[in-house]
Design goal:
Two copies of one chain form a homodimer. Chain A is α/β, with parallel strands linked by helices and 170 residues long. The first copy, chain A, has five helices and five strands; from the N terminus they run βββαβαβααα. Chain A has a single domain, classed as Ribonuclease H-like superfamily/Ribonuclease H (Nucleotidyltransferase, domain 5, 2-Layer Sandwich). The first copy, chain A, has a five-stranded mixed beta sheet, with helices on both faces. In chain A, a hairpin with a 2-residue loop joins β2 and β3. The radius of gyration of chain A is 16 Å and the shape is globular. The two termini of chain A are 25 Å apart. At the A-B interface, α1 and α2 of A face α1 and α2 of B.
């Protein structure tokens, strides 16, 4: 199973790619995309699309994990976040990658055990789980890795439910 | 010049395609897309993308015209509208079609001469300009044709400005 987790934003989009290989959780890639502010909106959307389509193809991504957005103070930012999410829905459809969505509270709870955890606390757990990654990563990246982990756990749950179901129906 | 004008919505998306051929304004196609509510969100986004990409290719669309959205009562609808707009930005970038955006007031003012016009008034003008279209079209369709017209006028303005500029700099 290969999961791509994304924390989209018009300034910084953090992402992580995690796979499960014979019970081992491997962080295959992580980082962020910074969209150039000098480009037009359609060009930036085009760059975003090409960037994540390349990741999906490169890692043979089977599911995409996202956080559910909430309406902040700025309605225009909320709408623009929708543009990026629309692109991810399109990629999910085109590449037959399942789409999992998690509320921010759900991600924090799953990773730290506390739904009201701060970003730093999430980051500390991610550093502990993946000691190889640099401790100076942006919160956008550690957040995205946390979202990716939730996606992996969700897909495992789904697969084991399907497995149990098959067992029961034998 | 060929313009595709779109009034996106998750239930109904109206559209029009208008070209200018030797000074004559021709409505090449108009109608609406209804997204099946039985499909998943990624699937519906995929259908929307494929539908408008086909229109762009078929008519060799050079510019896309849209209305600027405003935040209504329902923040979730506003976000979902963003998904569809994101797809149109992507298509604008991919097919090198310029993107024009107009405030709803601007469209009404340009078409009817009154920024506070009702949808019926916009529809009446559209029926008068294009007598061949059926009088029972949805408001989503007549609105989209009005947006398309604004796109055509804008592109003419731009071209004549560029033309004047070239003249001046000779």
């Amino acid at each position: 199973m290969v999961i791509l987790g994304i924390d989209p934003g018009f300034s910084i989009t953090g992402f992580g790619v995690i796979s499960n290989e014979m019970g081992k959780t491997i962080l295959r890639e992580h980082g962020y995309l910074k969209l150039p502010t000098t480009k037009s909106l359609p060009e930036r959307i085009g760059i975003f699309h090409a960037f994540f389509e390349e990741k999906i193809n490169k890692h043979h991504v089977e599911a995409i994990a996202l956080e559910t957005p909430f309406l902040g103070k700025n309605a225009q930012n909320f709408l623009k976040l929708g543009y990026l999410r629309g692109i991810l829905y399109l990629l999910s459809d085109k590449h037959k990658a399942e789409l999992y969505e998690f509320a921010p509270r759900e991600v924090k709870l799953a990773v730290t055990g506390f739904g009201g955890a701060e970003k730093e606390q999430v980051a500390r757990v991610i550093y502990r789980l993946f000691p190889a990654i640099s401790i100076v990563e942006k919160a956008d990246v550690t957040d995205a890795i946390a979202i990716t982990l939730c996606g992996l756990w969700k897909s495992k749950q789904k697969n084991s439910l399907a497995h149990n179901y098959l067992q029961m129906n034998r």
